[in-house]
Amino acid sequence: MARKSADFVNKKAHDPTEASSVKATKPNFRKPARRADLDNLRIFLTALVIVHHTAIPYGGLGNWKFRSRCFPPLSIALAVFNGVDQTFFMGGFFFVSGWFSGIGVERATREGTLSTFVANRFKRLVLPAVLYTVAVNPFLEVMVEGYGPDGFAWESSPMGSLSFSATTFRASLSNFVGIRGPVWYCILLAIFDVSAIFVPPWSMQRLVTMLRKHGFMLSLWITTIIASFVIRVSYPAGRVFRPLNLQPAYLPQYMLAYTLGFVSQETQDLHANLPLGASKFPLPRLICALVCSILAAGVMLYISAIHLSTSDPATAMQAMTGGFNLPAFLYASWNEASFAVILPSLLATFTTYLNKPFLLRTRNNQFVDVARYSYAAFLVHESTSLFLEMLIDINMGCSTPESSTVVDMLGPFGMTLCVGGLNVLASWNVGFLLVENVPWLRAML
């Protein structure tokens, strides 16, 4: 009875990409223990993605459907914030996903249920991505173009607004060229997971052995830097590969992170295949890693500006995104080096200090595991955030940064923190309501 209860708890606190439908058939097989540190890390990374996207309308770097009229187009503070968290947050997602996928593939291979594993990947990853692309994204186009600060809905009759909305929705569908929105992560993870089932177990064991050699590990990271630099000659950071809505500039890191996470579960040691091992003082090391990354970003920007003979930071940052030049090579090196030191420090911090389930009490005095709703929060965060950001911008009533008092009161960084916090809370609440009240979504997510 205790064993069944433990299995039930493990299933409810599942990873959003884990195949929980595959059941054990060998009683003597010991299922890997649930890791609360990885669940909590997933919560943190999801919240960071939401705040990262919140920063873009207020002067940060990246692509977003909405830009605030109350703030300048570029904030150096937010650009540094976006740049630093870009070095590790999606790579961190793929590392954690690789860990859980490795467990799922091993179990499915042992039990002969690989077809069930693939079907589960389709249900949990591909199907939500397709539904998001054909239903949610056109709705967001209507919301932004029709009901944003400059939307057509404010200048036309209700029937006219309805007609424009229908036209915009149809146009979004007719211009379909591939996956839209943040669900590129789901599709890429599905590709990785399905590809992993064709990798023979002996090759994974050999890779684990080779990763213990420092020379091989160093060559692997150098190869990732070179691959990122070469790809950015044709696909600079920010340019997407339309069928997947993926930025190829960061693909080498995602492949490396997934692979390292996948093979790490073989030894159940998060740090076995990373450049930095566990630490007795992980939090100071994490702070040091972040500070060093920020300082290195400043040095990189300074060197790039001198190399280009410019005093404009925007010009230097544009050159760093790609091309066969020194700034682009510096950026590729800095991005992967930051990932190499920040991710192990982050993992160690969560293992040491945040290794208990994050539970919240509901109104009916029941406890819910916040990690259970991370995937749902990730899927709804774009629509939830856009709605709140446009609502706030409309109510601020400014037409230019010069006409805004909010810039002087909070600044771009303060605004990002305030609105980002609201977006995080709203996304989790919407995700919770959908999972708990829509049965077919609960089965999918």
Automatic annotation (TrEMBL):
Positions of the UniProt region annotated as Disordered: 1-26
Biased composition (Basic and acidic residues): 1-17
Keywords of this entry: Membrane, Transmembrane, Transmembrane helix
Residue ranges annotated for the Acyltransferase domain, each copy included: 36-428
InterPro entries attached to this UniProt entry: Acyl_transf_3_dom, Glucan_succinyl_AcylTrfase
Superkingdom field: Eukaryota
Membrane-crossing residue ranges in chain numbering: 40-59, 88-105, 125-144, 182-203, 215-235, 286-308, 328-354, 412-435
Record Pfam families: Acyl_transf_3
GO MF terms held by the record: acyltransferase activity, transferring groups other than amino-acyl groups
Protein name according to UniProt: Acyltransferase 3 domain-containing protein
